Amino acid sequence: MLLDIKMPKVNGFDVLAWLNGRPYLENLPVIVLSGSSFDTDAETAKHLGAREFLTKPNDFGELILLVNGIYARWLAKPSAQKFVLLPCETSSIRMKARFYRANFSAMRHKTA
Asked: What is the reported pTM?
């Protein structure tokens, strides 16, 4: 999950705290991608369970490098093919997850 800290209704720290209270989501990797470069924000996010805290770059080329790095660390692994489905989700959402998983897999094979 990519998560920002500064959002309009609920901030990212609140989302991280909410995720911490859900044991069935403990294996969901959360990467904070924020405009903040404050060390205190990074420390708070990691304390609340974020696996990484990355600062949004101002340059588009740097953003591409950042996204490629996230892909290499988190999505290029075979375990990334697994999707976390919440117990309350409907079958239509499960069908969408299968659709996206299949298309993502096909897209990966085209670029390889």
From this structure: 0.63
57-81 residue pLDDT tens: 988 888 888 888 888 888 876 554 4
Do residues 19 and 64 both lie within one domain? Answer: yes
Task: Mention every residue, 6+ apart, whose C-beta is less than 8 A from residue 63.
Answer: 56, 57
Alpha helices by DSSP H, the chain: 12-20, 39-47, 60-70, 91-111
Strands (E), the chain: 2-3, 31-34, 52-55
Q: DSSP state, 24?
A: G
Name the residue range of residue 39's domain: 1-76
Tokens 């404050």, located at residue: 38
